């Protein structure tokens, strides 16, 4: 059957995450329903990642199959007319029959947005953790993230995983403007709620509740999560998904 890859973005505020759930509205469920109505057959999407409830995506990919070939530009146009305004399908293209949006991804990059001061206009997409954070200590912890570590101490347990080791290729924290800080993490894989747990841990260090040594030990020992409050989902964005050119050529974008 023809296989297609879809590039989309969404505001996750009102959705129970990406993955389809029987009793809740999810991004996958909404897009599948719209695509099934347009194509007039049941469509099942396979996403590049499963964002949690309330998490946003600037770049998400998903593949699907149809029994009859579709015209990609027309499908994008018709989906855009049907989908709610908080979901945007940028592009659909035919791809190889063995392409898999999740398993072929080389890395993913998430961005977490922190506010340095209260801002009623940014509060839906960033978290204000309070004043007086120790940014020197936070930066030391962010630098320690790079490399391969056991992130069982910074994630929610998932029985389906065979191991909790992830390789962080790049981590950075930078001031976007006078009131907004971006934390970016690029890795080969992410565990459930991993970025939100990391941010929660960073804020615990920044407020003096935990030490830099505690943070680094969690990475080395892979100990279970130690009463870390997860950072709110609203500040988290799936920012980029990378595929090797041999798998999915995105150079024309």
List the helices and strands and how they pair.
Blueprint: E1 3-10, H1 27-39, E2 46-47, E3 56-65, H2 72-82, E4 87-95, E5 107-115, H3 135-144, E6 147-150, E7 165-177, E8 180-187, H4 194-206, H5 212-221, E9 236-242
Parallel strand pairs: 3-9
Antiparallel strand pairs: 1-3, 1-4, 2-3, 5-8, 5-9, 6-7, 7-8
Helix pairs in contact: 1-2, 3-4, 3-5
Description:
The chain is of the alpha+beta class. The protein has helices at residues 27-39, 72-82, 135-144, 194-206, 212-221, and strands at residues 3-10, 46-47, 56-65, 87-95, 107-115, 147-150, 165-177, 180-187, 236-242. Strands 1, 2, 3, 4, 5, 6, 7, 8 and 9 form a nine-stranded mixed sheet that branches.
Largest sheet, in brief, is:
9 strands, mixed
CATH architecture of the largest domain: 2-Layer Sandwich
Low-confidence stretches: none
CATH level-4 homologous superfamily of the largest domain: Pseudouridine synthase I, catalytic domain, C-terminal subdomain
Q: What share of the residues does DSSP label as strand, in percent?
A: 25-35%
């Amino acid at each position: 059957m023809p296989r297609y890859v879809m590039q989309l973005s969404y505001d996750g505020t009102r959705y129970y995450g990406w993955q389809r759930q029987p009793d809740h509205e999810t991004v996958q469920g909404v897009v599948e329903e719209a695509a099934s109505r347009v194509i007039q057959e049941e469509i099942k999407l396979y996403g590049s990642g499963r964002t949690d409830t309330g998490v946003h995506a600037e770049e998400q990919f998903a593949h699907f199959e149809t029994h009859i070939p579709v015209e990609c530009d027309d499908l994008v146009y018709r989906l855009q007319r049907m989908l709610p305004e908080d979901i945007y399908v940028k592009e659909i293209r035919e791809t190889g029959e063995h392409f898999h949006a999740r398993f072929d991804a080389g890395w993913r990059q998430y961005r977490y947005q922190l506010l340095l001061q209260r801002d009623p206009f940014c509060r839906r997409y960033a978290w204000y953790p309070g004043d007086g954070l120790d940014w020197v200590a936070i930066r030391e912890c962010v630098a320690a993230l790079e490399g391969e570590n056991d992130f069982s101490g910074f994630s929610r347990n998932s029985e389906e995983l065979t191991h909790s080791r992830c390789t962080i290729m790049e981590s950075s924290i930078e001031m976007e403007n006078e009131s907004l800080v971006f934390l970016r993490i690029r890795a080969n894989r992410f565990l459930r709620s991993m970025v939100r747990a990391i941010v929660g841990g960073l804020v615990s260090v920044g407020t003096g509740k935990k030490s830099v040594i505690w943070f680094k030990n969690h990475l080395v020992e892979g100990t279970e999560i130690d009463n870390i409050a997860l950072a709110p989902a609203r500040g988290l964005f799936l920012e980029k998904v990378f595929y090797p050119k041999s798998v999915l050529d995105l150079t024309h974008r």
